[in-house]
Structures are given as structure tokens and as C-alpha cells.
Design brief:
2 copies of one chain form a homodimer.
Chain A (H helix, E strand, L loop, with lengths): L2 H17 L6 H8 L3 H8 L2 H19 L10 H10 L6 H17 L6 H24 L9 H20 L5 H15 L7
InterPro entries (chains A, B): BetI_C, Homeodomain-like_sf, HTH-type_TetR-like_transc_reg, HTH_TetR, Tet_transcr_reg_TetR-rel_C_sf
Pfam family, one (chains A, B): TetR_C_6
Protein name (chains A, B): TetR/AcrR family transcriptional regulator
Amino acid sequence: MSTRRAKLLEATCRVIALRGVRGLRVEEVAAEAGVSKTLIYYHFRDRSGLVTSALEYVNDRAEGYAGVSDDDDAPVRELLLRLLVGEFQDDRAVRENSAVWGEVRAAATFDEGLRPVLATLTERWLVELAEVIEDGQDEGDIPASVDSRAAAVRLTSLVEGLSGRWLAGLLTTAEARSHVAAALERELLPDAQG
Amino acid sequence: MSTRRAKLLEATCRVIALRGVRGLRVEEVAAEAGVSKTLIYYHFRDRSGLVTSALEYVNDRAEGYAGVSDDDDAPVRELLLRLLVGEFQDDRAVRENSAVWGEVRAAATFDEGLRPVLATLTERWLVELAEVIEDGQDEGDIPASVDSRAAAVRLTSLVEGLSGRWLAGLLTTAEARSHVAAALERELLPDAQG
């Protein structure tokens, strides 16, 4: 990605994280980035293209701070935990990412145009998590009776729910992380019906 | 509550569920309810009072459709399930309630004025659920090792997370309900560390 494009998306995220996506005006992003509106339209076509690109940008950025690399050889349960608790860190960028995601999710209730990108990125996260669970099953670290996709849906939904409370100051970072760890442990138990 | 006050709050919920809380203007609510702005200011003092009252109203309304009464003698696990899955119903009012809640939660990230009412109502929900778990423990239906409050935090956070996906069309009502049931089952297992 060009540096300019990245800078425009960083400015967009700052504006969304501060004031929400519904109030977002291209003028504000232009002012925040110190460029003309025309440049933004040139790069992202319209407001909706800008928001979609910002969400993808946030997603890529989140992969950087999850602390998991492709050739990581940590135990599978440890990897899963890191993939999930990475969302809760006392770090400005992490909090901003979480705020942008939460905001776009809430806005998608009202704005159907946001749903395709939300569906795609949510699915990517789910599949990533389910694949790690399946790796663990192949290696014998996770019971074969665990439904990898269902567990991934519940764990990622829990993270999203906790994230809303964390951002609103109802939960500390440590509390959010410990709830994720406890839920993960429960999801990886052998399924009685399995 | 007076009929007039209830009607004003219903109109407020419709406006929030349609367009979100950040775009909410007292004029719109007045137009939706067919009354003057002055009447709204008379009942709710200001915009923030209106939003707070609407959230409390939604909460009271939700208790009506959860299908749980104080003298209910259903098994505790069944009561818990009903308290949680009541949030997911193919019903306009339930969906609207959920949208209003989700919207206020998301807005609280940006608007600290919304946090006190959010904290109070979230706490009430948590305590209600934790008390039912404790009743089940007293009756011997739920293992004593279950941490009632921690389980309640996770289960309600999961419901909030699933709710966002459900409202955005990423999950069906049946899927959301079945994930809640599965998580509840896992939370009520004896805690290995307990």
C-alpha cells in the first residue's frame, strides 16, 4: 500500500474512532489528513469506499499486533488465546481498531451497504480461528468432538461483546482477557454430545 | 408510567432503531410522536434525559418478552436459557430493542454521558442472571464450582456480541439461539479449577 493511501486510512480511522461512522464526512477526513477532498475521492471513489477500505486497513493492522506469525510454533491453545486476547490491550492503536470495528458493526444494523465488507472480514476471522482449532485436533491437542466453526463463532462473538463493554469502561483489560481465556478453556473441552 | 410518556419513549426507540442515537434530534422524535418539542423537554429535560429514559424503557419492555415471571417454577437451566435467548426472536419489537441497546452501547464508546445508565442496566442484567445461577446452586442443579458472576458476564457479553451479528444479518435467529444454548451448557459444567 502506498504511504499516502495508508496515511489517508489512518486519518479515517482516527475520525471514525473519535466520532463514529455515521457522522463521518469526507471533509473531516481531508482536514485530519491535511489533503483535499478530491484526493480522497480519487483514492476511494466515495464515502462508502473509504469506510470499507478503512475497515480492511484496521483488519490488516490488527494482524500485526495479535502477536501470531505464520511460522509460530507455540502450542495451539496458546496461539488461540493470543489470537483472541490480542483485541484487548492497553494501547492506543488497539483501542482505536476495536472502536472502529465496533462502530462499523453497530452501523451495519442501519446501513446495509456496510454489510458485505463486515461479512467478509468476520468470515475471514472465523475461518482463521477454526483452522487453528483444526490444526490442534490434527495434532491431538484439542478433542475431535469440538465443533471448530461453532466454537469460533462463539469465541469471536464473545470478544465482540466484551469489546463493547471494554470500550465503554465497564470492563478492565485484564478482566476482558481473563473472560476470553475462561471461555476458550470451556470451548476446548470434549463435547458431551460429540 | 403515563400513556403519553410511554408513547414518547416508543417514538424515541423507533427513531434510534432506524437512524441511531448519534443522529438523534429531539425534533425527529417530536415529529415521530406527533407532539411539540416543548412537551419532550418538559418530560425529559434534555436530549440526554430522553436517551437515558428510552434505554430504561427498552429494558422494562424486554423483561416482558423474556417469558420469565417471578413465580416461574421451570427448572433453573430452562429459566437461564429463556432469559438469554429471549433477546433473539423474529419479532419487530425484540429486534428494535436489540438495535437500541446495541446502538447505545456503541455510542457509549464516544459519549461518556451514556455510560452511567449503560453501567446500571448492564449490572442489573448481570445480577439477575447470577442470582438465578445461585438459586440453581442452592437447589443442587448447578455445580457449586461455577463462578456465577463470571459466567453471567461471559454469557451476557456473548449475547451482546451475537446480537450485533444477528442485527447485521450475519446470523439467523435459530443460529444465535443455538450458540447461546451451547455456551450456557459449557458455563454450567463443573469448573476444573473450582
